[in-house]
Task: structure prediction
Amino acid sequence: MDALEGRSVRLRPLTAADRESVFAWYNDPEIVAPYDRFATDTFDEFVRAVEGAPNDPTSLAPRFGIAPRDAGEVVGVVGHYRPHPVLETIDVWYVIGRPEARGHGFGREAVGLLVDHLFRTETVERVGATCDVENVPSVRLLEGLGFRREGTMRSALYHHAGWHDIHLYGLTRAEATARASGRSSA
Ligand SMILES: CC(C)(COP(=O)(O)OP(=O)(O)OC[C@H]1O[C@@H](n2cnc3c(N)ncnc32)[C@H](O)[C@@H]1OP(=O)(O)O)[C@@H](O)C(=O)NCCC(=O)NCCS
Result:
């Protein structure tokens, strides 16, 4: 799998060294879990999931590490998966695992690169995402990329001993193309 090059970040496959830090983020409730469940897999299961993901469209394993262009280490990860057995849609997810790397635009650029990649390489007409209604950075990231809120699923995710409402977001191929032509003519 080739790297995807952006202005400030590069999305690249995870190396063996990256996997240890990424696995640690998965198991740190302060990193992945404030608005989500967090994984309880063993490291071996995690590695198997990462290695198997390219052959499994439904895999929730990370697909790319997010590396700032001026640094070798990854600061986060992105993934994508087919959330539904019948509907033609792919959802994206994203985590900036190093707290000091948040708020610098890396998350938005990384998700933008991933979305462009999916529209280039897959036949779907819609890319989606879901996020906890209280997850302000995630809502802003998605809306900044042109995702439209399509609805809210009530009490759809259990975490931190409570049921949480989840926003559904979607971006169509036509909307992504219109945004890209706006960017190139600006
Ligand atoms: C969500 C997340 C990936 C955002 O990544 P990031 O690199 O910090 O975000 P960016 O710097 O690209 O900023 C995206 C938008 O969020 C806003 N934002 C970032 N941090 C914020 C914060 N702490 N509070 C409020 N808004 C914030 C930015 O201002 C920007 O919005 P704007 O352009 O309208 O001003 C990151 O906060 C994270 O990893 N959170 C934990 C995991 C998670 O919640 N993942 C998503 C699950 S749905």
Observations:
- Residues 32, 35-36, 94-96, 102-108, 131, 135-138, 140-141, 144 surround coenzyme A (CB under 6 Å).
- The radius of gyration is 16 Å.
